[in-house]
Amino acid sequence: MNLIGERIQSIRKNKQLSLSELSERAGIAKSYLSSIERGIQSNPSIQFLEKIGGVLGISVEEFLQEDSPQSSAKDQITQEWILLVKEAMDSGVSKEEFKQFLDSVKMNNRRN
């Protein structure tokens, strides 16, 4: 199974990048990227994933995650948190105010 290569290719295509564009922006050989995507090469280095991830906006951890019902649930939770933070920002809550709120909750949790 070539999950990493498939994931790279899928994200690259979703971002409408050609193989050449991604390899150039990431500073890696086009032939190596192609071989990873096609499953000819496997187990790319962390450095490779960092370079590709930097261009695609994906963390190394996201490349390595397996798709499962559990990860889908985590993605759903993550999306809910993102929406909650966005709603707070849209309503005028500053980053500092949000941080103070979190610190307050942490202190209350320690007391209980």
From TrEMBL:
Database matches in Pfam families: HTH_3, SinI
Domain of life: Bacteria
UniProt xrefs under InterPro entries: Cro/C1-type_HTH (IPR001387), Lambda_DNA-bd_dom_sf (IPR010982), SinR/SinI_dimer_dom (IPR010981), SinR/SinI_dimer_dom_sf (IPR036281), TransReg_Diox_bact_type (IPR050807)
Residue ranges constituting the Sin domain according to the UniProt record: 68-106
Keywords: DNA-binding
DNA-binding in keyword set: yes
HTH cro/C1-type domain mapped to chain residues: 8-63
Keyword Signal applies: no
Name recorded for this polypeptide: XRE family transcriptional regulator of biofilm formation
Species this protein is from: Paenibacillus harenae
